[in-house]
């Protein structure tokens, strides 16, 4: 368990997640003088309420540009974050960002169906890319995004903030160090009640899918890193829709099971009609869980020996700082495109199993 | 939430579970003078460590007889519980219990495959019957048991102690009174690590099935009474065996999904290889859960508004007192054979779905 700051620093180092939200006295990271500049593409809720405020806390990266299709949003951002006129783009002139030396990294925060296009355009413009999850709406798109960034010699990172969150790092550690023996079972569920019927996530053309793509992906992630292996087979069940009008394009609720090569299993659930939010691991000699697990804050952790004592951090700041540091040090980041692609392969297999009445299917 | 003794009494009355472990001053139940006499059939761990000690705390029923196939066990019981010689039977001479006025109720605590035979023999001997869960190893046997008790004019109760447990009564109340709105989702899992390979529960001829029959049945129960409806369809998945030798006769781990007529769903898991023990309900405006949920003690309850404040009771004493009181008052008990039969129909559908590669099947 993480009991204090020193434990957390050790844990961060162990996990390779050297993302800190406060400077260390007398210690300078290599390249600390230089901060990377980031531009946010898409000024929706996540960019506005999470990413931009987090970028006021980051050590290695700072907000310098915005890309938006809604000109009316611009004045607020200019005033609040002192964005210079020359660092403001729209979706049409975005490619000119290639000539802008202020911007090293582009963060794609658009609806899922636009991730591939803007990741590839950003890579072609010579920028490193952070792309929100899910990385794409298909495996094929994900592969093209990875290839584009590779060809451009730029990093691709997925918006998997929880890889930098101390609660989830503790789940990974408890599994990896076999503190309670080998993990045999994970129960991981993530769902919420989707309100506004007009929101893009309810429309397949923009989202590529329903709660599985949106939040179920966190349960997939949780199962993978809490078991510490890659699943090989999947079964999945679609539940009947209680609101067929609202969810006419996408699944409303589903369950799925992941089968891991060592016999470990994960049973998961995701939905747009109710709140559920948990990552539970049963191991040979005990259990450990986060409940709630996947939010921006409010995590609680417990093990069969008692509560986890962990101090929350700003996940978004830690995530962007972690990626920035990897770029500055010219080493791979912790959440590369390949990590996103593994989830896309699992998601495609889950949708295929649901379509085949729950048939057990090989992943990938 | 249950905050004090008065709340618990009100709750017990509401739920029809008027099973109290301490007498109420100045208040006499109808028939309180008369205590029923019970005989335990099968002196294994549950009878020895749970039921017999609980019968020292009951108000309406007391231990007067034993039925065992192992004569070496008799002296300890005679000494500890003052069982008279004339109230001791073996499996061959058991039917003579018909002539024994000391014994009103027989509690069948034998391996599952013997439940039907001894329930029917006890009914024919004119005794009321409490039968441990699962009530039988098939729907057909369960129907025969109900018919036999009906024909004999005697009550049949299943060993569903949790219907008398204040934590579970609170889950039922929160659902029934829609304290957090309508329940949309239940996650219910129950499993443990089965040790001794020689134990009867690992052998299909005695158990009729694996963890589903043994502990998964609690997750089925939990889903049913927390949603407050009967499921109509089921899907189920068997997981690959990690110890095919130990579990050659039975499933090792499985998941299943119950589909309720109002669109509510339950996702469940059961296993013999690791500990998992939880009943979680997500409703429209909040959630409530027991974790751990199904043990003889150690329950913890929480809701989205905070911890449940509930004082644990002796479940077995409450259960047997509750059934005894129903018998004394000549009204149906809370856990009749029909309640057990509903679970057997679900269990048979789960096994059928697993055998049909997870096909969605109608229950019953």
Quick tags:
homodimer, 364 residues, alpha/beta, Rossmann fold, Dihydrodipicolinate Reductase, domain 2, 2 domains, nine-stranded mixed sheet, six-stranded parallel sheet, 10 helices, 15 strands, 32% helix, disordered N terminus, TAT_signal_bac_arc (chains A, B), Glc-Fru_OxRdtase_bac (chains A, B), oxidoreductase activity (chains A, B), nucleotide binding (chains A, B), oxidoreductase (chains A, B)
What features would you describe in this structure?
The structure is a homodimer of 364-residue chains. The first copy, chain A, has 364 residues and is α/β, with parallel strands linked by helices. Chain A folds into 2 domains: 19-160, Rossmann fold; 166-312 and 337-362, Dihydrodipicolinate Reductase, domain 2 (2-Layer Sandwich), CATH 3.30.360.10. In chain A, 32% of the residues lie in helices and 22% in strands. A 9-stranded mixed beta sheet of chain A has the order 14-13-12-11-7-10-9-8-15. A 6-stranded parallel beta sheet of chain A has the order 3-2-1-4-5-6, sandwiched between helices. In chain A, helix 5 runs antiparallel to helix 10 and helix 6 (166-176) crosses helix 8 (211-227). Chain A is globular, with a radius of gyration of 20 Å. Chain A binds chain B through residues 184-185, 187, 189, 191, 193, 235, 237, 239-242, 253, 255, 257, 259, 262-263, 265, 267, 269, 271, 273-276, 278, 280, 282-284, 286-287, 304, 357-360, and chain B through 184-185, 187, 189, 191, 193, 235, 237, 239-242, 253, 255, 257, 259, 262-263, 265, 267, 269, 271, 273-276, 278, 280, 282-284, 286-287, 304, 357-360.
